[in-house]
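User:
Hi there, any thoughts?
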Amino acid sequence: MPLHHVVLSLLADGPSHGYELKGAFEEAVGPQWGQLNIGHLYQLLDRLSRDGLATTHRESQSVKPDRVVYELTDDGYAELSRWLGTPAPRAGGYRDEFFLKVVAAVRTGDRGVLDEVLSTQRRHLMTETHHLAALEREHRDDPVVSLLIKNARLHVEADLKLVESAEDSLPAALRKPATRHTPVSVATTATARAAR
């Protein structure tokens, strides 16, 4: 995730220091993204400075230690402009843990295991849908944050359609297990683990 480019965009507003940038990031993207780790942010800022995209200077404070202020360079503005002009492909292709669970469930050859994996995912996605609806109501006056929440909601809706498609098409793909062991249901396995 190119967070360093977002930091460049925040610095385009003018010189700033770490905690100020952290607050600006979290205010700009809203709660759906989550908090930005301050240690990670300082690593990004050090990288920007090392790469010549930002300069630093120290600013003295009366009570606290000096703080480091970062400012965008001409190369930083150019890199921000270059990044904004390029498409944003999905990170890591289409790898997805749920898909791997579906593969494993189909390989068991057990319809009950497949149904359980799909229904568990459906419940999780429905919970996400309700959570996102509440966030949309809470942030309806902020168009940027609302757009990020809408993006998350549309992804969840697409994932729900994938679950529906799997429910329709995958039972026919169930194969006989490769071993002679009887497949154990997901719930039975979880119960056995909890009893240990």
